[in-house]
Design a protein that fits this description.
By secondary structure, the protein is mainly α. The protein starts with a helix and ends with a helix. α1 (2-56) runs antiparallel to α4 and α2 packs antiparallel against α5 (143-169). It has helices spanning 2-56, 60-87, 97-108, 111-139, 143-169. The chain has one domain (32-169): Ferritin.
């Protein structure tokens, strides 16, 4: 009788673990989807901003920085798209209200004001992306997303430093 009760308790515990594992997997997948949605939206906005900067920047250093960033953003978009297709995640190309406001603000500026507004926005944006990528690298169970976060994390640091450096030379 004790053996039956012990076996029954072990089976019940195993079922409970399975449900907990399923819940953790669902939560992890939901968090990964939220990360992909946020990064793809931010990346779409960043590509729009850098295309605008390529056309409107006064300083050559600002336009060159934008071109470099656009190449990085396009590669990140392609990499995220591959992860999305392989993992059945949905990417978003919409732009949130904060980034729409930034685009509208930049569209109203020109010359030195335009360049400095762009560079200041990049220092802030790169800092936010750095935190987002670090969090994903630390918490995700998805190997491809951890690799993605690890790959693009150094870009955020480099771009933040580059934007700050250019800002101080204008």
């Amino acid at each position: 009788m004790k053996k039956i009760l012990l076996f029954g308790a072990m089976a019940f515990m195993a079922m409970g673990c399975s449900k907990n594992e399923e819940k953790q997997e669902f939560n992890s997948r939901a968090a990964d989807q939220a990360f992909i949605t946020k990064v793809s939206m931010e990346n779409s906005a960043a590509m729009s901003v850098t295309r605008l900067v390529e056309q409107r920047a006064l300083a050559t250093s600002v336009a060159d920085f934008a071109r470099t960033m656009l190449a990085e953003q396009m590669q990140a978009h392609d990499d995220l798209g591959t992860i999305g297709r392989e993992g059945d995640y949905v990417l978003s190309d919409s732009i949130n209200a904060r980034n729409k406001a930034l685009l509208e603000r930049l569209n109203r500026l020109s010359g030195y004001s335009f360049d400095t507004a762009f560079l200041n926005s990049q220092i802030e944006w790169q800092g936010q992306m750095k935190s987002l990528l670090q969090t994903e690298a630390d918490r995700s169970d998805n190997r491809a997303l951890r690799i993605f976060a690890g790959k693009y994390y150094p870009y955020t640091i480099s771009n933040m430093e580059k934007a700050d450096s250019i800002l101080h030379t204008l």
